[in-house]
Design brief:
The protein is of the alpha+beta class. The protein has one domain. Helices cover 46% and strands 12% of the residues. It has two helices and two strands, in the order ββαα. Strands 1-2 form a two-stranded antiparallel ribbon. A hairpin with a 5-residue loop joins strand 1 and strand 2. The longest helix is centred in the middle third of the chain and has 19 residues. It starts with a strand and ends in a 16-residue tail after the last helix.
Amino acid sequence: MENYLTKRNIIIAEKKSAQDRQDDIFRKMSADKKVELGSAFWRLAKDLVGNKISHGTNRSETTSG
């Protein structure tokens, strides 16, 4: 929980949402760590869907032009 002071210096707990916590963690992460994490998620997604990720290599000739 985050705390903040009111005008009378009374500490009041402010609840943070899960999204706010994730945003804080991501904001503090180094660029290298963000790339590493993104790569790990990509590998996980590729493992989950198998060969369904084509990266555009299986396009027909008519779709490009």
